[in-house]
Amino acid sequence: MEWPTLNGIVTATTNNGSTSVGATDASQVTLNALNTKSAYSVVASGVPYVAHGIIVHLLANIASDTLIDLLTTSGSLGGLIISDLLASLSTSTGHYIFLPIVIPENTTIFARGQQTQGADQAIGISITFLEKGFMDRDEYTRITTYGANTADSGGTGVDPGAGGNTWSAWTEIVASTPYEMSAVLVAIGDQGNTTATAGDYLFEIGVGANGAEQIAFAGMFIANANEDQYFPCYIGPVDVHIPAGSRVTARVMSNITDATDRLVDFVLYGFD
Amino acid sequence: MPPWTVSKAPRFATPYGFRETASTGINISGSASANTKGSYGELTPATVYDTDGIYIYMSSDVAANITNSWLVDLAIGAGGSEVPIVANMPLTGKRTAGQFFFVPVTIPSGTRLSARCAVLNVAANARGMRISVVCMPRAYVNDNKTRHALTYTYGANEADSGGVQVDPGGAANTKGSYSEIVASTAAPIRQVILTFNLINNTAASNAHFLFDFAMGTAGSEQIILPNIALASASGSDGIYPPVYGPIPVNIPAGVRLAIRSQSDITDATDRLVDVSVIGVT
């Protein structure tokens, strides 16, 4: 479908309270210390149209893994967009996460977060709202988080083992998905490691019972270039069809064997 | 669409070019002549299934603390008759700096896939890189999606293995002038991928940036994607995220594309960012 380039142009809108993201930006969100969720902060005022997808931008100057909640209300999780969005951060980094989720018009978005360091930290968050004209795909109304670990602001840890370039055992992310996944976003973290060694990794996502895992995503590559985070940190959302009641797992191999630096966290976000 | 049974193939993503012996992809190298494409390295002689989207993973394979820049082609076709289906994907950074693209293109089963690259710094210990791909079959691609068969890369600068240089100017936190990416798009764009890199800056600063991606004639640009937020890092001489998208859009053929930026730094070198755009038709 073509939309006109002049009148009635369809554009995205980024709301973050400021056009400059930096130390004094109004969209700074406090990430509470020591794995405890902060109070809610407004990160974006609403737009006068139904958004059929949003892009979440993160800018940070802290080396820590974080978990972030995005909501449409400030008082409870009743207006939940996504809970425990894993963001692996380093001393200067940016991320974008595309969420094909429907947001009603004029909806304010709030955020809160937690991280591993001993003092509160700040992160810059902005939201780009996408009108229908942008969306050549299905949109969803629910995102379910699998494998987040609020005890350490991370995910489900997977150890490739000391063998080097050898697949680990499958590690369970979720024993039984409560809902069908029509799309999945994979988030990757380094367990808050601030002195990581450069290394290469392959990971796979499996579906199925213990001992009968079938590989859904094979040979996915990530790397750590001494930036205290993996690249890419996010894979997807990838359209899949994983039925409700499925057991989902992950396994990893790496070319480094250091007992700390080889560890990887995974959190999956199912869309339906 | 009903769920598929997990026990029945072929419904799974298929990797090519990855080496379990090294937890990475195949090695390819730029030519010994700067900014000249090297030989193709084969990822697979024949894809097993029809593909409707492809993940492309790249990382540098240089000696420690060397920063370099590559432009990478992913190609289809028999040896000696390769045709790029995604051209001039940039990779910049130090050792093991990783980059990945998801390009929603359709590739028939039985297709040979290969890759080649050009590199800026042609020292023998500086021009290698690794690449692997994961091909996503139709079951992974939403049935409501348009299938795509072509990509065009706009703004790549083969003279320095970079892109269009975007300068936010000397005033911090103030949008600079637009830089033209292309005067006229060759085809409609249904999915757009923006790429960013630091032009082989070997002493980058920690900094924040906001970019506006726009279309329209000079002086009448209309912003499509506003305030794309990125950060550069001194430790890796990289900018993050280096790849933005694919974002579904509807950009007609024959349209001028432009981009502008602002930064919280004013250093005349470190504030510069190279940008290119991959349009998926």
Question: What attributes characterize this protein structure?
Answer:
heterodimer; A: about 270 residues; mainly beta; 9-stranded mixed β-sheet; B: about 280 residues; 6-stranded antiparallel β-sheet; 5-stranded antiparallel β-sheet; about 45% strand; disordered N terminus
Description:
The complex is a heterodimer of chains A (272) and B (281). Chain A is mainly beta and 272 residues long. Chain A is 0% helix and 46% strand. Chain A contains no helices and 19 strands. In chain A, strand 5 and strand 6 form a beta hairpin. Chain A is globular, with a radius of gyration of 19 Å. Mean pLDDT of chain A is 83; it is low at 1-10 and 16-26. Chain B is built from no helices and 20 strands. The chains are: A mainly beta (272), B mainly beta (281). The interface between A and B is large, with 78 and 79 residues.
Explain the layout of strands and helices.
The complex is a heterodimer of chains A (272) and B (281).
Chain A: E1 13-15, E2 28-32, E3 41-44, E4 53-60, E5 65-71, E6 80-88, E7 93-99, E8 109-115, E9 121-130, E10 143-146, E11 156-158, E12 171-174, E13 181-189, E14 199-207, E15 214-224, E16 230-231, E17 234-242, E18 248-254, E19 264-271
Parallel strand pairs in A: 2-8
Antiparallel strand pairs in A: 1-9, 2-9, 3-8, 4-7, 4-9, 5-6, 5-8, 10-19, 11-19, 12-18, 13-17, 13-19, 14-15, 14-18, 15-16
Chain B: E1 14-16, E2 18-19, E3 24-29, E4 41-44, E5 53-60, E6 68-76, E7 83-93, E8 98-103, E9 113-119, E10 128-136, E11 151-154, E12 164-166, E13 179-182, E14 189-197, E15 207-215, E16 222-233, E17 238-240, E18 243-251, E19 257-263, E20 273-280
Antiparallel strand pairs in B: 1-10, 2-3, 3-10, 4-9, 5-8, 5-10, 6-7, 6-9, 11-20, 12-20, 13-19, 14-18, 14-20, 15-16, 15-19, 16-17
